[in-house]
Design brief:
The protein has about 250 residues and is of the alpha/beta class. It has one domain: Aldolase class I (TIM Barrel). The chain has an eight-stranded parallel barrel, surrounded by six helices. The chain is globular. The two termini are about 15 Å apart. Bound molecules: 2-phosphoglycolic acid (PGA). The site of 2-phosphoglycolic acid (PGA) has 12 residues, from strand 8.
Length: about 250
């Protein structure tokens, strides 16, 4: 299966002109055939960016829990699929901090799957404790977010492990190591296996995210046991982002 690198632009940049410039630089610098490169821009830039290049797939940074109706401000998976969006990042820690819980994320995953968009479910603990309770925390996130979803559909979901304590905007953040990542990836596969099957759990794609840059991307890809990366800050710099993509192309795990 192809590795996948997703750039999460968050609420950046502030103009469509800058967005187009970053996107054009990324797509024109891409020479990689064995990796899927995805950008998740703010909703309002999606249509314009889709017209610039087809080499880069598009993800949304969120999607609604419902397909249509009187829900002011919401954008549905159905609408996103219609304009060519392939993936939807759901349950990002920044949205969880704004009040989203596992129950709402579960509804969003179901709605997005129904519309034919692939969910990228973000999980990850706020901090680590000596008793290793963070494993149970991530387990609950997975079980509650994937509750009531058919086994085959679960295997289509991409899981992004993003320890909040390693994300670039977290105050007093720390670097996660490839080992931190690897042990959680093994654990995530075990949890997925318990609700699907060992065969399906092997198929599911797991990404790492949390201040990934061109210096440590290789380490996570070769030793972290992941199938790709979710890159925030560094994805707004086309040179850095392309470097990460190139590192992914040559890394083998
Ligand atoms: P970061 O963001 O790479 O800037 O830490 C990752 C994310 O929050 O998805």
């Amino acid at each position: 299966m192809k590795k996948i690198i997703i750039g999460n632009w968050k609420m950046n940049p502030t103009s469509i002109k800058q967005a187009s410039k970053i996107f054009s630089s990324v797509s024109s610098g891409l020479k990689n055939k064995n990796i899927e490169v995805v950008v998740a821009p703010p909703f309002v830039y999606i249509e314009k960016l889709k017209k610039i290049s087809k080499k880069v797939s598009i993800a949304s940074q969120d999607a609604s829990f419902i397909d249509k109706g009187p829900y002011t401000g919401e954008v549905s998976g159905e609408m996103l699929r219609e304009i060519g969006v392939k993936y939807a990042i759901l349950g990002h820690s920044e949205r969880r901090h704004m009040g989203e819980d596992n129950e709402l994320i579960n509804k969003k995953i179901k709605s997005v799957l129904f519309s034919g968009v692939t969910p990228v479910l973000c999980v990850g603990e706020d901090d680590r404790d000596d008793n290793h309770e963070y494993f149970n925390f991530v387990k609950s996130q997975l079980l509650e977010c994937l509750k009531g979803i058919k086994k085959d559909s679960i295997s289509k979901v991409i899981i992004a492990y993003e320890p909040v304590w390693a994300i670039s905007t977290t105050v007093d953040r720390r670097d996660a190591t490839a080992h931190d990542c690897e042990e959680m990836v093994i654990f995530i596969r075990k949890v997925i296996s318990s609700i699907t099957s060992p065969v399906l759990a092997k198929k599911i794609r797991i990404l790492y995210g949390g201040s990934v840059n061109d210096r440590d991307a290789g380490e996570f890809l070769t030793k972290g046991g992941v199938d790709g990366l979710l890159v925030g800050k560094a994805s707004l710099d086309p040179k850095k982002f392309l470097k990460i993509v190139n590192i992914c192309e040559v890394s083998k795990n």
